[in-house]
Amino acid sequence: MSKTDVKDKDIVVPGQTLAKDMGLVAGKNTYRHGEEIIAKTAGLVDIKGRVIKIIPLSGKYIPNKFDELIGVILEAGGTGWQVNIGAPYQAYLPFSEYTKRFMDSRHVETVDLLAEGDLIQCKIVKYTKTKNLIVSTKHLQDKKLEGGIVIRVTPQKVPRIIGKQGSMITLLREKTNTNIIAGPNGWVWIKSDKPENELKAAQAIEFINQNAHKQGLTEKIEKLLK
Amino acid sequence: MAYKKRLDGRKFDQMRDIDIKLGVVANADGSAQFSMGRTKIIAAVYGPKTLHPQRLREADKGIIRAYYRMLPFSVSERKTPRPGRREIELSMVIKEALEESVFLEEFGQAVIDVHIYVVQADAGSRCASICAATLALADAGIPMKDFVASVSAGVVDGEVVLDLNYQEEAYEDGDVVDMPIAYVENLNKVTLLQLDGKATEKQAIDALKLGIEGCKIIKGKMQNALKQKFA
User: Fold this and answer.
1) Which of A116, A213, B25, B231 is the most exposed place for a label (fewest CB within 10 A)?
2) Could you report the per-residue pLDDT of B68-122, keeping only the tens digit for each?
3) Which of chain B's residues have a Cβ under 8 Å away from the Cβ of A42?
4) Alpha-carbon distances, residue A63 vs A123, A204, B44 (angstroms)
5) What is the ipTM of this complex?
6) Nearest chain A alpha carbon to B141
7) How far apart are CA A58 and CA B42, in angstroms?
8) Parallel/antiparallel/unpaired status of strands A43-48 and A11-12
9) Would you tell me how many other CB atoms lie within 10 Å of the CB of residue B171?
10) Residue B74: C-alpha distances to residues A167, A197, B43, B114 (Å)
């Protein structure tokens, strides 16, 4: 067994030495300096086998290919749309990625399909080193999200909102009778027939956002929604 | 050698009291308040975010923009809010001290804005600013190699001292040397070194060594403060 200076789930800060061992692999949010593995960000240590990585507790959303998330249309152009996905870079939705069906761009106005300020569901299909960020709505029936509210949470807390195999988000949906979509960028869309249900779900999600690193979250949420 | 005892009663190698608060600016992605004695700094970090104008973008690395400003009431004589020569220079110096530690290659074409405001000035504000800024960067979850710790060392009337306050900087009975130092421990690199006044070679080296020791102590305090915030 390799030796580490920290235990699993410990809170570490940038610059902290995690291990001094060439047998270990420096995972996400860590770097190797000589023999040492050092933390890049503040977060929780996660040791799996030989890999040592850090789950950060704060920070902006950095895009990943195949991420499915919520975006806002910034501008409808001649051959596509500019989309804000809450990342440091602007995304582009080309006309060819809008739908699987055949559609002739010469006879359709982009503004008629999606206008400025519309909420969309999308998937990142291309993210290059030169920060060319392309999203797609091809795989979806409902591209536009009508009505509902959007709340923002810390992107790193989204896995807790979704839970293991979607356990938490299912609980939230059932208890509040709402439809919830949470993307890795921290934007969560909530929709229900009754506005009070939406607010109830928003409250619960805000509670998760603030208490994400604590244990026994599911019981607390169940209590909160009773 | 008239300077036997420091004006505020500290030991020669003793720093002023440090107070750290994190998350003081809720709107920002990360923020910190750093006080060192009577010097008080607030720093807020926004980003990484899209950089405008586009011509400033760099293809494979992000940039840091630091804004160091003194509030008009931070000193007893009102300071005009217009950024002067000194503030523009210090903004650049702070930016370069921080750049060394941040993994800028992870966000090409983007920018990190670091806003630093001096609420109360009592000497050593650029050092405290670097500490506040590095705490705010860490709070914002920006990947860093290590904290950039900073403190000033110097010579007052022949005695090598750590962390001069305003009284000492304005000491009139003997020569004063002020040397702000920023130090990244993991890289063993000094990222800021300025010197104001006339020092002998031995004095300068002694002051640098003392400053680096001080930086290590400050780094430990900053690490503890950040751990407490997330715990």
Assistant:
1) B231
2) 999 999 999 999 999 999 999 999 999 999 999 999 999 889 999 999 999 999 9
3) 138-139, 141, 226-227, 230
4) 11, 26, 24
5) 0.89
6) A59
7) 19
8) antiparallel
9) 15
10) 52, 49, 15, 19
Q: Does domain A149-224 fall into CATH 3.30.1370.10? A: yes
Q: Between B29, B108, B147, which is nearest A14 by CB? A: B147
| Nearest beta carbon to residue A29 from set B140, B143, B231 | B143
On whether the CB atoms of residues B160 and B207 are closer than 8 A, the answer is yes
Amino acid of residue A41:
T
Please check whether residue B104 is in contact with residue B61, taking contact to mean a CB–CB distance below 8 angstroms: yes
Tell me how far CA of residue B144 lies from CA of A30, B45, B54, B180, in angstroms: 9, 14, 25, 22
Q: How confident is the model at residue A226 (pLDDT cuts 50, 70, 90)?
A: confident
Over residues B11-40, the pLDDT tens digits come to: 999 999 999 999 999 999 999 999 999 999
DSSP code of residue A69: E
Radius of gyration over every alpha carbon of chain B, rounded to an integer in angstroms? 18
Q: Which of residues 115-154 of A touch B (CB under 8 A)?
A: 129-131
Cβ-Cβ contacts under 8 Å, A130 against chain B = 59, 108
For A52-74, write each residue's pLDDT tens digit. 999 999 999 999 999 999 999 99
Which residue in chain A is spatially nearest to B224 when comparing CA positions? A13
> What residue ranges do the domains of chain A occupy?
11-56, 68-136, 149-224
Q: Do the domains A149-224 and A68-136 match in fold? A: no
| Number of neighbours of residue A149 by Cβ within 10 angstroms | 15
How confident is the model over A195-208, as a mean pLDDT?
A: 92
Token representation of residue A139: 């795989």
Over the stretch A107-116, which tens digit does the pLDDT of each residue have? 889 999 999 9
Q: Cβ separation of B223 and A56 shorter than 8 Å?
A: no
Cβ distance of A14 and B145 shorter than 8 Å = yes
The amino acid sitting at B226 is L
Cα A72 to Cα B57: distance, rounded to the nearest angstrom: 24
Q: How many CB contacts within 8 angstroms connect chain A with chain B?
A: 88
* Structural class in CATH, domain A11-56: mainly beta
Residue of B nearest to A10 (CA): B231
CA distance B166 to chain A (A): 32
Q: Could you tell me which of B175, B180, B109, B114 has the C-alpha nearest to residue B142? A: B114
Query: What are A34's strand-pairing partners?
Result: none
The reply to whether CATH 2.40.50.140 applies to domain A68-136 is yes
